[in-house]
Amino acid sequence: MAARALAPAAALWAALTARRVARPPKLRPGVPVICVGNLTAGGTGKTPVVSALLEHFAERGIAAHALSRGYGGSLPGPVRVDPAAHTAAEVGDEPLLLAGFGPAWVARDRAAGAAAAEAAGARVIVLDDGFQNPDLAKDLSLLVVDAEAGFGNGRVIPAGPLREPVAAGLARADLVLLLGPAPARARVLAQWPQLRAVPLAEGSLQPLPTGMSWPGLRCLAFAGIGRPGKFFASLRATGAEVVATRAFPDHAAYSRAVVERLLREAAALGAQPVTTEKDAVRLPADLRPQVLTLPVRLALAERGALDAALGALAL
């Protein structure tokens, strides 16, 4: 009922988005631009995809630079992220995390950011988000879909979770990355068979082997990401005993008081506090060593479609 009542507002949102994405780009860089985006509000796993692309190019000796708006950060940019000097409050949590995989830039003006990255030696630019932003001409657009969340009720904001209609987004996508457990991926493909009209790669985000022995470890898990429950489930899947969970808003700024409270709660439970890599960079630096992280990485069932798309770039 509420979704139907909000349909006029959703139609206006969709029309404004369509008008925006139809604008000609401000800049066509002299190097390829790969856009990693999504159709829904909230997290879908874009950041691990961007980090996987940075690693892919680094292994081949190709200088790939990540470019982000720097959501949650105070610096308008363009600025190259320095993990030793910048904080998440300045550049945002995602760019700070990505800077561990390769050069990363933040810029509210994506065109200015791309120009700065190219001037600094980038041979390919990986745009973190920006699928609905027309500032840069894109050579390859990857659409990340969280299989467990899917497209919700299939309606556009504010009637649903979509930034734009599915059909409109798929028309601009070069490749769909459908991420999640196999049963969830099968459900999404059954509900949205039009996804198969675009080259498709399926996979999931898997915990990175770190030597940490998770089975049986008592944990207090906390996260401030798009879907905290997704992290809690991943931690349980390692065999850890999750005795308590604390969910915070996406990109939450962790004050010292909040983190100290979490540490006290964990101690009272005889548990180890655990969070995501993206949350960890937002913790006070001196308290960070007391919190474990569960890193996840992109794992594709079959890399053929993605490798073909990347191989077609003029590098």
TrEMBL record:
Keywords: ATP-binding, Kinase, Lipid A biosynthesis, Lipid biosynthesis, Lipid metabolism, Nucleotide-binding, Transferase. ATP binds at T40, A41, G42, G43, T44, G45, K46, T47. Pathway: Glycolipid biosynthesis; lipid IV(A) biosynthesis; lipid IV(A) from (3R)-3-hydroxytetradecanoyl-[acyl-carrier-protein] and UDP-N-acetyl-alpha-D-glucosamine: step 6/6. GO terms for molecular function: ATP binding; lipid-A 4'-kinase activity. SUPFAM superfamilies: P-loop containing nucleoside triphosphate hydrolases. Its EC number is 2.7.1.130. GO terms for biological process: lipid A biosynthetic process; lipopolysaccharide core region biosynthetic process. It catalyses: a lipid A disaccharide + ATP = a lipid IVA + ADP + H(+). HAMAP family: LpxK. Transfers the gamma-phosphate of ATP to the 4'-position of a tetraacyldisaccharide 1-phosphate intermediate (termed DS-1-P) to form tetraacyldisaccharide 1,4'-bis-phosphate (lipid IVA). This is Tetraacyldisaccharide 4'-kinase. It comes from Halovulum marinum. The gene is lpxK.
